[in-house]
Amino acid sequence: MKKNNLIIAITFCLVSSQCFAQAAQSASHSQLFKQVEQKKEVKNQTYLSKDAHAQLNPDDSKDAEKLASSIEFEIYEIGENKMAHTVYQSGAGICNGYQSALGVDITDSRTYYINQDENEYYASIAGATVYSKNDPDNVQYAPVFNIKNTDVAKQVQEEEQLYGKKMATQNIQKSANVLSGTICK
């Protein structure tokens, strides 16, 4: 995972609640991780290619080709109680890297709102290199907490210890599935 992407991901997590405050509502802190895994949210996804400087639609064949051949693109997702920012990078081109031993570096940052009114959230920052024929490699994960209520903070941190790494790994796999199912199919 590149250092710049990690810095961008941390910055995104720390400021995302201020930038998109109206997009998210308060989430119950009870069983946060289980709710996130089970909940099927309607997502607003935005695909941006570093080369195209515009929003792209992966269902459009020309846009999908731009994403596939780009060296970097990003996906932003805004849901009711969470936001995500995923960066895909490969110097060989996204699909060339994905289908070779070079792989694609993914940096995935997600913010889960505990209490939007109080600007309280848990954030997950994960990175890995993904391949079409191999499991993700070099998986890294770091949690970020901004929770004022000590009882709630303790509960969320306990849940993070149990489920955080698993959820981050699942998010990396979902991000890899975007490549195999949409961009590089």
Automatic annotation (TrEMBL):
Q: Which UniProt keywords apply?
A: Signal
Q: Where is the DUF8095 domain?
A: 43-181
Question: What domain of life?
Answer: Bacteria
> Signal peptide: which range, if any?
1-21
Record-linked InterPro entries? DUF8095
Q: What is this protein called?
A: DUF8095 domain-containing protein
| Organism listed in the record | Caviibacterium pharyngocola
